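seq/struct pair 1
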Amino acid sequence: MTTQLEPRWLTAEQQRIWRAYLNGVALVNEQLDADLRPFGLDLGEYEILVHLSESPDRALRMSDLAERVRQSRSRLTHTISRMESKGLVARTACPSDRRGVIAVMTTHGYQLLVDAAPSHVASVRRVLVDPIAADDFEALGRAMEAVTRVTD
């Protein structure tokens, strides 16, 4: 028989902060998604293009890309298929491992990223950076880095 530990319930203040975090993240993501729609992109696709643009030859193994964008392989495959149909990326076989697949950013995908980036950065500033005091923004960065260290 296993003994169940009593949960460590959140205090009222912790619960308030937790809910503010959930609401804030949802609102930021919704706004960033909406602001990318005129470019025919969503936030997940934009993030994929950014990671590919920062990689040598603008290419990454699908497994590495999935890890970087924190998506399951099946979800990434679906997203890459959609992006492939838009001409933003192409998939090629990995020359060193026949089972591996590489996602490669196309010239069209790179140009779309170049076109969308100024608007996206302005959106990030408008919905997240500018409304927060500099000290609070730095604290947010430290908090998210701590979360990342615990979950990696």
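seq/struct pair 2
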Amino acid sequence: MEVVNTIGRRKSAVARIYVSEGKGNITINKRELKEYFPAETLQYIALQPLNLLEVAEKYDIKANLDGGGPKGQAEAFRLAVTRALMEIDPESRPQLKAAGFVTRDPREVERKKPGQPKARKRFQFSKR
């Protein structure tokens, strides 16, 4: 198997990953997964597709994560891993889709508008 290269995005986070056959080593920005995502919940989110298909010990993953916060990065990583697994084994798509990992979450932060304190909030209206 050659190296599979995919991309995942969430909010302003971008994950570029390279998947190859190996022993289950996951390196993110030249650091181990547990070091990069110290929170157990973020590790769980990042590894969801691998655990669902039970292939966590089968592939080595090198990732470059950029932008956004920790949760957005973990979810971008999850989408990239899902896309890589579908490229390696197209038969796994229905299982991943049923779990909701295939769809890219389109929600972005709405921009602040001029003449308003925030995106939707208005300054207090005074009649007199």
